[in-house]
Specification:
Elements (H helix, E strand, L loop, with lengths): L2 H30 L3 E2 L1 H5 L9 E7 L12 E7 L4 E7 L11 E8 L6 E8 L8 H9 L15
Parallel strand pairs: 1-2, 4-6
Antiparallel strand pairs: 2-3, 2-5, 3-4, 5-6
Length: 154
């Protein structure tokens, strides 16, 4: 082989290695992406059954229920059109309450249709809502909290 052919083989091997590395990195990232679904999309069967995802909406008024002596909490999350029952075992965030925005992370039980959450995220103040939840609620016609007026000089 000539020196030029050696260089071309070397360039080809470097290119092939780069393609393999990028493919493996993208595959690893794809397994860790958490997609967002609204209760309407979950009720329509658009949510995956085989992996974790985020479910966002408002906690339905009067839907919090816990059997005496049980640690599992059940509540409903709605976006105005669809409602999904969420099961959660764990400590709830301090700001978790009815009629407030929430994002639950977990999996959908294919048998019961219940969302089994392993993490609950609540709004951190009265004016914040994740962009996905805000967009889903706005699409359903819910009034979103307005931003407070800034004091003069800001």
């Amino acid at each position: 082989m000539t020196p030029r052919q050696y260089r071309m083989v070397g360039v080809g091997l470097v290119f092939l290695g780069a393609v393999v590395a990028v493919t493996l990195a993208l595959r690893a990232f794809q397994d860790n992406w958490l997609y967002f679904f609204s209760p309407t999309e979950v009720a329509a069967g658009e949510a995956p059954l085989d992996r974790r995802f985020r479910l966002g909406g408002l906690v339905t008024e009067g839907s919090l229920r816990r059997e005496p002596g049980e640690i599992e909490l059940l509540f409903d999350v709605t976006d105005g059109n669809g409602t999904v029952t969420v099961s959660y075992i764990g400590v709830l965030p301090d700001l978790f309450r009815e009629n407030q925005g929430v994002v639950a992370i977990g999996t959908l039980d294919p048998l019961s249709g219940m969302f089994r959450a392993d993490e609950i995220l609540a709004r951190h103040d009265e004016n914040y809502m994740s962009p996905e939840v805000a967009a889903a609620l706005a699409a359903q016609g819910h009034a979103l909290p307005s931003k407070p007026a800034q004091p003069a000089g800001y």
